[in-house]
Design goal:
alpha+beta, five-stranded antiparallel beta sheet, Hypothetical protein af1432, two-stranded antiparallel sheet, Rhopdopsin 7-helix transmembrane proteins, Beta-Lactamase, 569 residues
């Protein structure tokens, strides 16, 4: 039997090591204390089972009770914490002082018969043990056990009834832990068995604690994410794990979907339990589709407010442990897109009548859109017009080069038409970033880097009803990838070399050249020689080197072009 207790102690130590290994960067002191005290109790009892005299078994029991009593107190504090409540320092001090008193009484049994009136060394079932006759102060331990049990169960029941943000799984594990504890403590007492079952309880407690703490870490991770995003009142967030169990939501999401206020943590987001038709019939299937790879945003209109739904992964140690539904108010943006789409619908009706005129009007609208967005950035002037003219000169040279002579005229026409839309995504950039005269902070730079993604999305939506798929693809690529660099250091996707679409590589030359020779809020205009020198130096890093040779050959044509255009600063 003694070997069973030793094996039990080894398993308990393995649980402790596993917890420390998996939480090396962030450990909870109370969690560590629980593992320490349970291991002290288990190893002292296991070593006592091998003792060959009363003195040896007596010392092991002193240490065993030290570990067991403080395990009990630590467990109570953990249960209160897991139930969503806090204890002040004074209460914790009283509890540990009370436990220390009991340990002191046990340690002085030889000098007082108040705790044990007698102790006797015995060997039974292949192990050493100690028979005790309890004195009046042993009731102090009984009182502690009753108080801890009563207080813990009270907190668990209160959390079960009142705390919707406490996972039902957490409560179930705590109840199981207590049921096992009561069973293992009471059965030997009732049957007067010499075999002690409490060490097995401590190991069971360690195993359940690992399960509990691992799940609690996910709750904490989700809670931290939601707390961070709570400050962004214009966004809504709903978190759930990989098994569709609810992890929490912020106030924006709760206002949009009131059922979330009463939805318990760890409860599955399943149709039958959700009291909201749109969420039940639209969002749940949409989340499944998104996880499977069909990552298309979802729109929800209510009370003249249009919300857009997207999703992000919640990662822990590089593994996806859950998902975050992100809800964004896109009312104004969507109305703008609807307006543009209405323009496109009207234009489509005119195609059958006046195709040429329609194309001209469409181009005018696109340019107007781009100009409208550009007007937010008071430093760029006629950037759209100049880059479009620059593209015309550039592609005209490309058509007669050896490498690119097979480029068809339609591609060139599509690129020229698409050029004005390359910066549409700046509508999503904050004014303070767009108009900043100095260097961006890392946070501001991240905000600026969203404009190619947003631009591609806007272009795709604006041109949704246009039949020319080739033109749409060129336009989307120009908006999405014109800030990618040949060496892979660009954004938003970090594409490298010829993985960057040709149209985006061409657009990059026109975009950068115009920025160099134009006055901006953060710089003066460079002369033409300096601008071409900078571009030449960046061939092979920023720019496609082969395209760069052709662009450099356009130098005089571009200079003549710019000299004939009015530059507005």
């Amino acid at each position: 039997m003694r070997w069973v207790y030793l094996a039990n102690a080894i398993i308990s130590l393995a649980c402790c090591i596993y917890y420390l290994e998996t939480n090396v960067r962030k450990v909870n002191p109370r969690h560590v204390l629980l593992f320490i005290f349970t291991n002290i109790a288990n190893y002292s009892f296991a070593l006592g089972a091998f003792a060959d005299n009363l003195e040896g078994i007596y010392v092991s029991f002193q240490v065993y009770y030290f570990g067991g009593i403080f395990t009990l107190i630590t467990l109570l504090l953990l249960i209160i914490e897991l139930c969503g409540y806090k204890t002040n320092f004074f209460i914790r001090l009283i509890l540990f002082a009370y436990g220390a008193l009991i340990v002191y009484l046990i340690a002085n049994v030889k000098h007082s018969n108040l705790y044990y009136t007698s102790i006797t060394f015995v060997q039974k079932y292949g192990m050493s043990s100690m028979e005790r006759t309890y004195g009046p102060l042993h009731n102090l331990l009984i009182f502690l056990i009753i108080c801890v049990t009563s207080i813990s169960i009270t907190y668990i029941l209160i959390a079960l009834k009142r705390k919707k943000d406490i996972a039902i799984r957490t409560i179930n594990i705590l109840l199981i832990m207590f049921f096992i504890g009561v069973l293992l403590y009471s059965v030997p007492k009732i049957l007067h068995l010499i075999i002690e079952f409490m060490p097995f309880l401590y190991t069971t407690m360690n195993i359940l604690a690992i399960i509990l703490f691992k799940r609690a870490a996910l709750y904490d991770l989700s809670s931290n994410i939601l707390n961070v995003y709570e400050r962004h009142s214009e966004y809504g967030y709903i978190a759930f794990d990989t098994k569709s169990r609810f992890l929490g939501s912020n106030e924006y999401a709760k206002n949009l979907f009131p059922f979330l206020r009463g939805y318990r943590i760890d409860k599955k987001l399943i149709n039958s339990e959700i009291d909201h038709e749109f969420f039940k019939n639209e969002i749940i299937p949409w989340t499944d589709s998104w996880i499977k790879g069909n990552q298309q945003p979802k729109l929800y209109a209510k009370d003249d407010v249009i919300n857009e739904f997207s999703m992000r992964n919640i990662k822990h140690k590089k593994q996806t442990v859950g998902y975050l539904i992100v809800i964004k108010d896109v009312t104004q943006h969507q109305k703008y897109l609807n307006l543009i789409n209405n323009y496109n619908s009207n234009l489509q009706e005119e195609i059958s009548k006046k195709t040429i005129k329609l194309i001209a009007i469409q181009d005018s609208i696109i340019t107007g859109m781009a100009t409208m967005i550009e007007s937010r950035d008071n430093s760029t002037g006629n950037h759209i017009k100049r880059t479009s003219e620059c593209i015309k000169v550039f592609v005209d040279k490309l058509k007669y080069s050896d490498k690119y002579k097979l480029i068809d005229s339609k591609f060139c026409d599509n690129l020229i038409k698409a050029a004005p839309m390359h910066d549409l995504g700046k509508i999503a950039v904050r004014d303070d970033v767009l108009k900043k005269p100095g260097k961006f902070t890392p946070e501001e730079y991240e905000n600026m880097k969203i404009h190619p993604i947003e631009g591609a999305r806007i272009v795709a939506q604006v041109l949704a009803n246009v039949d020319d798929e080739e033109f749409k693809q060129v336009a989307v690529n120009v908006a999405h990838y014109h800030h990618e660099k040949w060496n892979g250091t660009g954004y938003p996707n970090g594409l490298k070399g010829e993985k960057i679409p040709l149209e985006a590589r061409i657009m990059a030359f026109a975009d950068v050249f115009d920025a160099l020779v134009s006055k901006r809020c953060y710089k003066e205009a460079y002369n033409y020689d300096k601008a071409f020198e900078i571009i030449q130096n960046d061939l092979g890093s920023h720019f496609d080197p082969e395209l760069g040779k052709i662009f450099l050959s356009c130098k005089q044509d571009l200079i003549d072009l710019y000299n004939n255009m009015e530059l507005k600063y």
